[in-house]
Amino acid sequence: MIRIFALCAIFPYVRGLVTSNQQVLEHTTSPRKVPVTLGVMSQCPDALYCESVFDEVLKEVGDIVDLRLSFIGRINSTEPEHGVTCRHGPGECTGNIHELCVASLYNSYTQWWPFVICSNGHGRFAVGTEEVSKECAHGLGLSWKKIKNCVDSDGKKGGEALLKKSVSQTRELGIERSCTVIINGHKRCVRDDEEWKECEDGYGVADFVRTIREAHDSLVVAP
Ligand SMILES: *[C@@H]1O[C@H](CO)[C@@H](O)[C@H](O)[C@H]1NC(C)=O
């Protein structure tokens, strides 16, 4: 079978931007934590899978990880809803915005991450629907009112601005496939087309945990 396109690969124009020297994202929390970035699209099956693996990883090393999601998309001023084109359509852009708003309102991953996992639990097309986001927010004790405010706001901290910032950052990092796992500034692994790829150090929960622990040890010894 000829594959016409990869389901969750980014638009071709990004190709060539990947540098071997991945920039370390600016993380705002404790410098002793290991920055972990998942480059994702909220309705991409590989992202949901990857996030389910990281849900297990976080149970072991969540306290030493500074986690963030970095969303893949393309800024496009003719896009009527959010000014961004998302691979799986406008609903995915909305899903990205919901997750970004929750992470922005509730900085601790212990609050925003369960929201992502809860949304995923309803299936990928339900991610970003008001019904599911509201239900997840209520179930987790998060304020849907605040989230909705963020989602609808045109301001600097509003959902659309957060999405544009996130997709720009993703592009700068050279991330083009969902899900791309970056640990401590290094591209560690990619989950793409229902397979793990470029995972020299393994792709099991224990492998990611080991990489994170090793990175943490190196951060602790560093001056
Ligand atoms: C920009 O958005 C418009 C409106 O949805 C779409 O038709 C067009 O293909 C998009 N352009 C790119 C380069 O993605």
Automatic annotation (TrEMBL):
Instruction: Look up the domain of life of the source.
Output: Eukaryota
Major localisation? secreted
Q: Where in the cell is it found?
A: Secreted
Record keywords, A-Z: Glycoprotein, Secreted, Signal
Q: Which residues form the signal peptide?
A: 1-16
Give any Gene Ontology cellular component.
extracellular region
A GO MF annotation of the entry reads: oxidoreductase activity, acting on a sulfur group of donors, disulfide as acceptor
Record bears the keyword Ribonucleoprotein: no
- Protein family (similarity comment): Belongs to the GILT family.
Name the record gives this protein: Gamma interferon inducible lysosomal thiol reductase
Q: Name the species this protein comes from.
A: Serendipita vermifera MAFF 305830
